[in-house]
Amino acid sequence: MAAEFNSTAAYLSPDPGLPESPSPARSGPAGLQPPIALREPVEHVIHNDRRVDHYACLRNKQDPRVIAYLNAENDYAAAYLKSTESFQETLYQEMLGRILQTDLSVPYTLRGFEYYTRTLEGRQYSIYCRRSPQNPEEQVLLDLNLLAEGHSFLGLGIFEVSDDNCLLAYATDTTGFRQYTLEIKDLRTNELLPFRAERVTSAAWAANHRTLFYVVEDEVTKRSHQLYRHVLGSNEPDTLLYEEHDQRFRIDVERSRSGAYLFLVSNSHTTSEVHYLRADRPSAQFQLIHPRQDDHEYYVDHHPGSSSDPAGGIFFIRTNDNGRTFRLMTAPTVDPVRSRWREVIPNRPGVMLAGIAAFRTHLVLFEREDGLPHLRIVDLTREAASALEASRRISFAEPAYNAALGANPEFDTAFVRFTYESFITPRSVYDLDIATDQRLLRKQQPVLGGYDASLYGSERLHATAADGVQIPVSVVYRHDTPRDATAPLLLYGYGSYGISMPVSFSSNRLSLLDRGFIFAIAHVRGGGELGKPWHDAGRMHCKMNTFTDFIACAEDLIAWGFAAKDKVIIEGGSAGGLLMGAVTNLRPDLFRAVVSHVPFVDVLNTMLDPTLPLTVGEYEEWGNPQRAEDYFYMKSYCPYTRLARKDYPAMLVKTGLNDSQVMYWEPAKYVAKLRTLKTDGNVLLLKTNMGAGHGGASGRYDYLREIAFDYAFVLNELGIAQ
């Protein structure tokens, strides 16, 4: 294999004056040398600061030398881990053996039909079906396996059935670039209508089941910016109803659960505004509820109240105008101007009101407190002094868990469906009887192979950050795993965009836990675990908190005896990959190995290019590097920029050639540069999925193969690949 890699010199040129590769990797095949990337330096000068990007040429996807380099890296990764191939197969079969391959989801009811998905053994994708009491014979709506034929990837975006139950609007992506094509299927004939729209990100039917509203994204920037109206059977071009010109904002169209309204939501990372339209008047104009104001977010749902008009009643408005953790207001549907908003649930600083769902007799509030999710039911039929007095929380017993609303498309229902899971409890679907508070377990995710939950333990801990802030940490382990600072630890993190990392069950993770691993999630600042204030404390010029929080979590887990000092493995993806790059620059000595998925590591170069997808909208998360103070703050942590000549842990860096969120060249450049600087003998692997995007493989069996590869890398680094 060494000779094969040496032959790549024809399309890969070395870095003059820099070492072509680090010393031989620990436990790697003898003589195996990594590829050397093409190097064509490009100079950047901004704010009187000069930077040289030696690997900017890797951006050219059309250059055959670039593709050859990515393929060479794939070959090198495969060769390095060739000795683990049988172990990868063992891991794959373990994980596959825990899954009920032929399975059925819990049906949900919508307008007299029961909708569900099913999987078949040997098939990569789900089959979408429905049946009705009048006709119990199954009707297949979409078989994704058939749609995937001839493609290495398939993603389903939109799935919306018209009010008369006869038409299905659906959107698919066959590249992984998250550019979806919208089509309409006649469910009576199984024929496609002569309609097709490209780059569609959301869609909603009007009440007349002849009018479809849809949003498209810009072909280059991928910003959802135009709303169109399509009328079935019309010979006229689709009507452009709205275009969002502010590049910070994206738009989305959705239908209220009541069915009475369509909402057009424009939002940036910090600001939003909502337009509304009666669903039974699709030719009318959308009306604005309240104009956007910087740092004011609000979101809307509808309830008809006691009005005889289905579109009457009130709007429920979740707003952060009086506190970052939001409060709940109401406004009449007739002229819902700001002066007519009335508070029903006040802002509670310690409780994040993260979402609401309106039903005929009740509201469901999604709350977060002390890093944990909660569901609160508000009885709209009960007379009480306040909405909170007319409410109760659904209680959960485990110290760390995830709970969320399930599929609840019907407005008039006596049940609320929710999902619950934890590190130990498999994903469970419940129906809660609103009148009696009784929970009916509809299904718990089967785990084959004799899974015994009593063998495992879970804890919710708090690490102390450098500034004294308490950082939630969720931990799971086998009870027989020693807590004497000898066990290997896999620590996961994200910490951006206000997104919370859920404490979810993974049957795949058992392959690590059963080999003595402890697994933990560091719920660092920048995420949403403790609401908007938690996000604010880890973005813009507070971003460094995200990285130092993660380091503090790792150090405390070692101090508490959860991990050996030389057996800490860390993992993250996308913005979590930025976290991986930043903390390994700051504390490379702390980590044994790193698994970094589609990592956002070239922060400065990406944020300086407004033509790239999503960049301008990201200014509210990271800053605008055209401003000197933002530029130099970003430079202080940008993983690609901050790489230095020193020892680094072993790394597996993964990307997708068709990634639309973090372009493949970011991790490719990062690996190429790091190869020339690292002074250790630890392995550095780059693995590119040449037919997928940001989320990796789309087929469930292909996805398991990817996890088996990752686990083999980690276990091989620890010398326990067996």
* Radius of gyration from the alpha-carbon trace, in angstroms: 26 Å
Largest sheet: 8 strands, mixed
Show unreliable segments: 1-27
What is the subunit arrangement here?
single chain
DSSP summary: helix tally: 14
Q: Name the structural class.
A: alpha+beta
> What is the 3D shape?
globular
Major β-sheet strand ordering: 32-33-35-34-36-37-38-39
**Overall strand count:** 39
Average pLDDT rating: 94
Proportion of strand residues: 25-35%
Helix content: 10-25%
Task: Describe what you observe in this structure.
- By secondary structure, the chain is of the alpha+beta class.
- Helices cover 18% and strands 31% of the residues.
- The protein has an 8-stranded mixed sheet, sandwiched between helices. Strands 3, 4, 5, 6 and 7 form a 5-stranded antiparallel sheet that branches.
- Strand 9 and strand 10 form a beta hairpin.
- The longest helix has 18 residues, at 700-717.
- It is globular.
- Mean pLDDT is 94; it is low at 1-27.
Essential attributes:
alpha+beta, single chain, eight-stranded mixed sheet, disordered N terminus, 722 residues, five-stranded antiparallel sheet, globular, 31% strand, 14 helices
